[in-house]
Amino acid sequence: MIMESDHELAARLAEVAGQIAVQVRDSGLIDGKPLGSAGDKTANAFLMKAIAAQRPDDGVLSEESRDTLERLDKERVWIIDPVDGTREYGEKRSDWAVHVGLAIGGKPVIGAVALPGVPTVMRTDRIADLPPAPEKLRMVVSRTRPGKDSEAVAEAIGAELVPMGSAGAKAMSIIRGEADIYLHSGGQYEWDNCAPAAVAIAHGLHASRIDGSPMLYNRPDVSLPDLLICRKEHADTVLKLVAEMG
């Protein structure tokens, strides 16, 4: 039996987990706030069992599972978010995602971001051509709580704000030609951005912390509060403005 590549596995895991979450939501058997939790937990149960079956020697970090520091001894760690954007998921919007990332040596090397509401799966081994940037740049921000840093940078460079849901949807919007800059400083965790960062980097985008340092994963503290994903030609300008704003 030929083992599928990590790229293929990440994409299949993300796609199937998204399908499971959609089935839970569309069953009509759960409503209100429990819906998001049910979708998260059901998709997570699948992902955890599938990764254990397919890559038993790897570590796993999931938003929906109790963390164990055994993963710190692993070179390869799958970092997953079964439903990123539970609000959007429950509202049947398209801007929610499933994140399946693989950090190797702490770096976001392999990943897939499923957008079940589109539907599509963005992945590290199938590279799409980036559409040209428009004259007036677009900065994607949270649709419920846009950050002050993002708004200030957008004003400074004359960019249009584009409200959107999950972190994965925001990051993928750069590749999909829906936005040009994703700047976030309001707090995230490793599962929020590992897969999106891996896919962005594979597509030739800039992905870093807002101080310009690299995105590093599988740390004891899983908080990874800020990031910048954008076209490389815009990175220096944005990083300089963030630094000047303190």
Automatic annotation (TrEMBL):
Keywords from the UniProt entry: Magnesium, Metal-binding
Pfam families (alphabetical):
Inositol_P
Q: Which GO terms describe its biological process?
A: 3'-phosphoadenosine 5'-phosphosulfate metabolic process; sulfate assimilation
Which GO molecular function, any one, fits this protein according to its record? metal ion binding
- Name the positions where Mg(2+) binds: E63, D81, D84, D192
Give the transmembrane region(s). Answer: none
Record-linked InterPro entries: CysQ/Inositol_MonoPase (IPR050725), Inositol_monophosphatase-like (IPR000760)
- SUPFAM superfamilies to which the protein is assigned, alphabetical: Carbohydrate phosphatase
Query: What is its cofactor?
Result: Mg(2+)
Give the matching Gene3D superfamilies: 3.40.190.80, Fructose-1,6-Bisphosphatase, subunit A, domain 1
Please give the name of this protein: 3'(2'),5'-bisphosphate nucleotidase CysQ
The beginning of the lineage is: Bacteria, Pseudomonadati, Pseudomonadota, Alphaproteobacteria, Sphingomonadales
